Amino acid sequence: MKKINLREGWLLKRFPAGTEYRPEELEAAFGAPGSGKDRSFSVRDFPEQVHDVLLDYGVIENPNETGINRDLWIDEYDWVYRLEFTGGTFAGAGGSVYLNLKGTDTFASVYLNGTLVGTCCDAFLDYRFPVEGVKAEENVLLIWFRSAKEKVNGVRLPERYEGRVPTISAVRAFRSGFHEYCGPVPSLIRCGIYGDVTLAREDPLLFDEVTADSRLSEDGETGMVAVTASFLGALEKYRGELLRARILDGDGCVRAEEIRPITKRSETVELMVPHPKLWWPRTMGEPAVYRLELTCGSGAVDSCGSGMADSVEKVIGFRRISMVGDMDFQINGKPLKLWGANLVHPDTRSNRYRPAVMERLFNLAELGNFNILRVWGESERYPEAFYEECDRRGILIWQDFYLCYSAYPEEPEFLELCRREAEQMTRRLKSHPSILLWCGGNETLLWRDYDNPGGPCFGEEIVCRVLPQVCAEQDPDRYYHPSSPCGGDFANDPSAGDTHGYTHLWFVPGREFPVFLSENCRVSTPSMKSMRRMMKPEELWPPGYTGCVSRRQRKEWPESWELHNTNQGVIKLGPVEHYYDAETAEELVYRIGAAHAEYIHGQVCRFRRGFRGDEASSTGTVRRTNGHILWKFNNNSNIISYGIVDYYQEPYYPYYELKRCYSPFLVSCELGDHGYIWVTNDTGCAVSGRLEIFLFDIVKNERQAVFYENFQAEPDESKPVCTIDRFGQFKKTNLVCAVAYSVEGKILGMCAEPCEIERRMEYPEHTGLQIKQEGDDLVVTASRFARCVELTGDEDGDEFGWLFEDNYFDLLPGMKKRIRVLGRHERGTVKAKAIYDDDEGKTEYQLLMSSTSNVGYNRLIDSSLPASDMPDRPLQTEYYILPSIAGL
């Protein structure tokens, strides 16, 4: 056996911080019985961090349930992991033995059988330590984590950084644990092991590092992979051993292979794949991936990784991404517009990678029509499994290096740590087709503009010299972006590079059509069921609270909500003034969520269109906004924050509005000095058909006027198909509606745009809303316009884990809304209720298994065109004789 994963038998124990213990003293403490918080805890599901283990044993409550951290005592202690294991064949091995750590928090000392074998000082690095003296029988491994809080408090910086560089930014720890921006209040400092711990022996060799660079020939007919493998071991012992490299396609067929004797410490192999399938983002085509397999050693050919062979696998793909203008990308020669969200670590208490949790987020990204996620510079470090899943799903990654809104020291030792991190990251990840670009980090240059205008930007040396130099050496064909945001006359200039949507706090010239938004945010609450887990009833709606905003009561929520919010969220809401004052907690949650959704709708539709309708006659008009990455995708604690998916991975109204706005083929309405109906095509193929445009009066419950327009939209084309000025003057009680039909009569998209803010509208209170099951789908109908229809599920009291293909939607009378149930539930009561209707529809849902199961619904969503409302009538095959929608 060449490698063993040390997973079983770990113990965890706390020690008072500030003492230099000898390893025998640590070992002796584990031998004492202990009790309460001082006992030795068995780590049940390694790797786990300290908060994971304590939560397993009920010593602490989950701080993410309420967004309040009541266990700050954890930060005051050192924590030691202990493992007793049998060395077996690793004892007296012919070659060197190595201990590999794939994820440890910042300040750790590692002992094997009482001997210090290495120290860790950077949470973003993998470590490999040579070890000696592995015994055949009992071995003891100790990993001692010093209190990060004490270490950070003890940092002393040179005088020139005082008052500028916070001490947490002078160490390479997970900085998010030291403030309240993402997570419970007060902050939660993570500690412990979050990745695999393995032993490996050479005997006679091991892979040291394997990198792969994939590229396409100019004509796209050949995929080329340059694989560089370096080895551990004594060259004179392994020279002549075999290296085998091969590429397999999605069906497991070998498409390229080479076997050669190893003659030096590093070998480079060039493999050619004829006529490769290209990798596309999921909204533009199939993300074809290949598997690269490498084995080395005497078993490289016959046993393929067993016995004496060492093996490595990587997912690769063939695509060509180029930047043809300012943040203007093409993939495989086609225009690429980028629509997605910022991903943050899913849980504040641990960096441990949980595949099931990430699968749900991936599913929500797919359902939400994302083609990109940004790995934020203050998020966690993800393993290969994360990037492989992005490769397979066709989700591009904007990859930050791990820097954030802060100044940083520029001392040689710190710069060297940043260099090592960047080298490790780029070499490890550059083989993934999903990596779009490297970015120097989050808001480092913006910090200069906001916090130190006119002064030095401590950290600029890192993002403008160290990191780009590493990228140029390791991955020269990928774009490097200095920091997010940057470009133009100031870091957040919308007219160049990327920008962050801080228009809730700043007046930003050029904000109407930024070149690219890598963040754009507003705050809202989770859905009501999550709010009930967050707060007690008296916190949700305190006695005497009125829900009205006045000069003396300026906040949009009760003071009790402030305990569950971070980063002054109350001043970062959407246009809540457009909605009725709330008289209940439920109404307040809706008001804030609807305002967030309205902000997303107005902003994203405008960015997708890319210019104003009155500019359409200008020669050479092109879309000015090339992408939008929402801040943020997910909340990692049950708090009131920016996430459109909450801690329990429940999507609320803003998520579904973003999903609709990200439809690859979008129909939207621009209402300004003049009105326009637009089509925007980001599907990668031409789309043609016919638009039906009409006014619908929600008070009279009838259509007021109608006309039709043909349209043709090429890939990356966005245009106003027609003006609605032909309606002349009309009352604001009308909705402006447009339905796009394909040539075959399929509904490709639609919009129903209100002409007035909600608090001035009179939406029907009795909509005749009905819901029933047809096959495995739900079908929702109404006899009057239904504003914001919410679907909820309940299986024996379990309201969580339900997921619907669409939700929080407006419904025109006479239309069927057909919806798939995609969550983990296969049965239960499903209700449908419009926000202003006291009546509700209800059905008993039972999965019939007549179609694809609702559990694990990857790639059920059409990657080229959105699922759509279906009219309550047979579809026509000739668009030019389409009748009016039934019931209108």
From TrEMBL:
Domain Beta-mannosidase Ig-fold: 770-823
Principal EC category: hydrolase
Xref: Gene3D superfamilies: Galactose-binding domain-like, Glycosidases, Immunoglobulins
Record-annotated Glycoside hydrolase family 2 catalytic domain positions: 326-446
Keyword Hydrolase annotated: yes
EC number, as in UniProt: 3.2.1.25
Family from the record: Belongs to the glycosyl hydrolase 2 family.
Protein name, as recorded: Beta-mannosidase
Species name: Hungatella hominis
